[in-house]
Design brief:
By secondary structure, the protein is mainly alpha-helical. The protein is 37% helix and 0% strand. The chain contains four helices and no strands. The protein is elongated and about 55 Å long. The mean pLDDT is 75.
Length: 82
């Protein structure tokens, strides 16, 4: 395929356990941690950082998300940092 000479490229890594050819904004908000981290596409500059997000514990993340949401509802900044 022919590339636009004005287009710039940068290698970026993702921590998704899925294999795909393109990122899609239609998937924003559907993954793990969507409520905690907010809507968006998240990338890392290094493969090591991206890999640190691969191995997740869904039960632990759900527990932490609930605690975070409760702290937000109480405006408890200290609890949100823990």
């Amino acid at each position: 395929s022919r590339r636009d000479p004005d287009t710039m490229f940068q290698r970026a890594w993702h921590g998704s356990p899925h294999i795909f050819d393109r990122f899609s904004v239609s998937k924003i908000g559907t993954g793990e941690g969507a409520q905690t981290y907010g809507h968006g596409l998240y990338f890392a500059e290094s493969q090591e950082v991206a890999k640190s997000y691969e191995a997740r514990d869904p039960e632990f993340e759900a527990k932490i998300s609930k605690l975070f949401e409760r702290a937000m509802a109480r405006n408890d900044d200290a609890a949100m940092l823990v």
